[in-house]
Amino acid sequence: MAQVVQRRPGAQEPEAQRPTRRDLPWPIRFVNTTVGMKWVMALSGIMLIGFIVFHMIGNWKMFLGNQAINHYGEFLRELLYPILPRTVFLWIMRIGLIGAFLVHILAAYRLVLLNKKARPVNYQSKRNYIAANYANRTMAVSGTIVLAYLLFHLADLTWGVSGVAGKGWQRGMPYENFVASMSRPPVAIFYIIANLLLAVHLYHGAWSMFQSLGVNSPKYNVARRYFAIGLAVLIGVGNSIMPLAAMLNIVK
Predict the structure, then answer these.
(1) Rounded to 5 degrees, what angle do the CA atoms 144, 147, 153 make?
(2) Is residue 89 part of a domain?
(3) pLDDT tens-digit profile, the chain (252 residues)
(4) N or C: more exposed end of the chain, with fewer CB within 10 A?
(5) In a domain? residue 107
(6) Residue span of the structural domain in which 57 resides
(7) Is 85 inside any structural domain?
């Protein structure tokens, strides 16, 4: 016979048992940890670094003339055509990159919150930045500027937003649009400064992502340092020479 439990008048009903953190799937529990967030930042950063490098190499075709880079732009729009409709695969890649970018930003923001929670009181004395270099200390600033640069870059050369893009912007004409935009010295200088800050950001990101993935040994640290420096120089110089060449009428 079932036992009837009597409650006193005015007693509250017991609350439904809420799932604890242990009840969540392992991937979610892992991502909610500091180590998990660093893994997310590292993996999304690898995706973004790959895109930046290949995007830069493709854009170097502008030095071969307008036909070379315009043909390259059309090639990207026809990837996997006719297996998929025109531009579909390009948009799949764009959505994947946007997702990686958003995940990277959210993971960085989450890490900042976790760090503040771990140390709610600021340092009482001036910090000694022997281990933390300039790139490390300015990651938030350089990342914010790079985000603003990305939005401006899309409005300027991809979307052709009126008042932002160069005069006479034409869809599907990347060479002419780039030259028209970079012919404006303030815009070209902004691109150069933003890409130099991107290089600073990538330097620290390329150095720290190996540590986040557990590859941290004195045996490899020298190679890690050279890789981070080489990537930063490649991106900083490689992306800056294009607006500089257009501003100086080397490319016209």
Answers:
(1) 145
(2) yes
(3) 555 555 555 555 555 555 555 667 777 787 778 888 888 888 999 999 999 999 999 999 999 999 999 999 999 999 999 999 999 999 999 899 889 988 988 888 888 777 777 665 554 545 444 434 545 556 667 778 888 888 899 899 888 898 888 888 888 899 999 999 999 999 999 999 999 999 988 998 888 888 888 777 778 888 888 999 999 999 999 999 999 999 998 887
(4) N
(5) yes
(6) 33-120+133-247
(7) yes
| Helical H segments across the chain, by residue range | 26-31, 34-59, 66-77, 88-118, 134-137, 139-153, 174-182, 185-212, 218-247
Q: How far is CA 38 from CA 31, 114, 139, 205, 229, in A?
A: 9, 12, 14, 11, 21
Amino acid at 74: E
Count of domains forming the chain: 1
Q: What is the CATH number of the domain that holds 83?
A: 1.20.1300.10
Residues 6+ away with beta carbon under 8 Å from 248: none
Retrieve residue 79's tokens.
């990837």
In a domain, 22, yes or no: no
